[in-house]
Amino acid sequence: MVTPKSASTVVLLKQGPRDSLYVLMLKRNVALEFVGGAYVFPGGKVDVADSNPDLYARCNGLDDSKASELLGVCKDGLSYYVCAVRESFEEAGVLLGSVRAENLGDSDLSVLRSELNSGKVTFADMARKLDLVLDCTQLTYFSHWITPEGSPRRYDTRFFVAEMPSAQDPGADSGETTSHIWVTPSQALESHQEGRFEMILPTVKTLELFLEFSSVKDALAWARSQRDVPTILPKLVSSGDSVEAILPDNPAYASSEEVYLQSARDIPL
User: Fold this and answer.
1) In angstroms, rounded to a whole number, what is the distance separating the alpha carbons of residues 132 and 57?
2) Confidence of residue 269 (pLDDT cuts 50, 70, 90)
């Protein structure tokens, strides 16, 4: 069994016309082994460098003790928040923070994003250059998923929700992600049911949580009210000639044997 890697995911929301709520989704490169071609929220693996003390010192509104308490971990809970900010910028070009350095424009941010994604600079390097403040108050933790034991690639993922910053325009990184779309949860789920919008189970279930909300304000208020966030561990089971993921509340969960996949490409979408 593969040990899951720590990860963060960010659900970015914006207010749409006629009391509608929109979610930012990215399409993963079809060439990727892990859920290639699927629509996802920005996010990724927590790096060792995400616990850099300099980055921690730049976090506004949260220290490691409080972040660890919120996430139910012993230490370095703040690294999940740092990862959420970093991945939002790397994958979607959305910066959840404020730049204090002077004489820096959008073109400078674009260059730094390219250098960050290519490995020419680290996120800590970028933060120092921008004199960046990471605004952890924008991120609300509300969900926790672990990839099934039968997957050859596994993640222990904390889900955060945030409002899309004004005066920013998202964009795919043209590497891991190839396009982006603003979509209502109902539109995404309907398209998924019709086979036109591939998503994995945690993405589907997360969108379902936001179906009842018509405003960003109400959605964020609900997320902030969550206490004792449960850990959700799906199971991969045989379903005829295919494999499907089922949740712990499924009556067959306890009695079904886990199916162990050889390739991450076989994870059901």
Assistant:
1) 10
2) confident
Q: Which among 206, 191, 216, 207 is positioned nearest to 144, based on CA atoms?
A: 206
- What is d(CA 81, CA 96) in angstroms, rounded to the nearest whole number? 10
DSSP state of 97: E
Note the pLDDT of residue 108.
81
User: Which residue is it, tokens 């799906």?
Assistant: 234
Eight-class DSSP state of 162? E
- pLDDT tens-digit profile of 87-140? 999 999 999 999 988 777 667 888 999 999 999 999 999 999 999 999 999 999
Q: How far apart are alpha carbons 164 and 94 in whole angstroms?
A: 8
Compute CA distances 117 → 47, 165, 183, whole Å: 14, 21, 26
> What pLDDT, in 10s, does the model give residues 23-75?
999 999 999 988 999 999 999 999 999 999 999 999 999 999 999 999 999 99
Q: Give the burial string for 244-258 (b: 16+ CB within 10 Å, else e).
A: ebbeeeeeeeeeeee
Whether the Cβ atoms of residue 71 and residue 80 lie closer than 8 Å to each other: yes
Domain covering 5-227, topology: Nucleoside Triphosphate Pyrophosphohydrolase (3.90.79)
Question: H helices of 1-105, where?
Answer: 53-57, 64-71, 78-92
pLDDT of residue 1: 84
Residue written as token pair 């889900």: 159
Pairing type for strands 231-232 and 140-146 reads parallel
196: which residues sit within 8 A by CB, 6+ positions away?
A: none
